[in-house]
Amino acid sequence: MRKVNGPEHPDTLMAMNNLANSYHDAGRRDEALGLQEEVLDYHRAVSGQEHPDTIMAMGNLAILYSDAGRL
Fold this sequence. Notes:
Blueprint: H1 2-5, H2 10-25, H3 29-47, H4 52-67
Helix pairs in contact: 2-3, 3-4
């Protein structure tokens, strides 16, 4: 996806988010966290801090942090 649409394309970001969730489900927490942090960075850069997609990415990252014991 990144090579076809670019890293900031909504479809790419959704695929990255889904992959982060799959990593999390598979117990690959560090990879999940890193990828979800990257998703959040792109959303902030593209849409701004207060956009619903950015806020959703923040929430997703917060869940991963909580599950990893990083409160």
